[in-house]
Design a protein that fits this description.
The protein contains 4 helices and no strands. It has 87 residues and is mainly alpha-helical. It has one domain: Cytochrome Bc1 Complex, Chain D, domain 2. Helix 2 crosses helix 4. InterPro entries: DUF3243 (IPR021637), Uncharacterised_YmfJ (IPR024702), YmfJ/YflH_sf (IPR038292). It comes from Kroppenstedtia eburnea. This is DUF3243 domain-containing protein.
């Protein structure tokens, strides 16, 4: 099963990647930039697998670049217990 098939699996996957990035010493800004790049790729290349991903894709496509960075930062914050990455 792909992590994109279930939103909770996707959040768990993203949370693990954020923790790995922190462990490598990445700053909050760098993590958010990477999340933005991933979000942009997913929105352009991957079909949503559930209603949550459909909503995120619609929001992403309606947003300008700064708003997309905000969405990416909020996703990182969501999966990291509401705090966002440290650094």
């Amino acid at each position: 099963m792909s992590v994109l098939n279930d939103f909770q699996d996707w959040k768990n996957f993203l949370s693990q990647r954020v923790e790995q990035a922190q462990g490598m010493g990445m700053s909050k800004e760098t993590i958010t930039d990477v999340a933005h790049q991933i979000g942009d790729y997913l929105a352009k290349e991957i079909s949503p697998q559930n209603s949550q991903e459909s909503l995120l894709k619609e929001l992403w496509n309606a947003a300008d670049e700064q708003e997309q960075k905000t969405i990416a930062g909020l996703m990182v914050k969501l999966v990291h217990g509401g705090e966002g990455p440290q650094h």
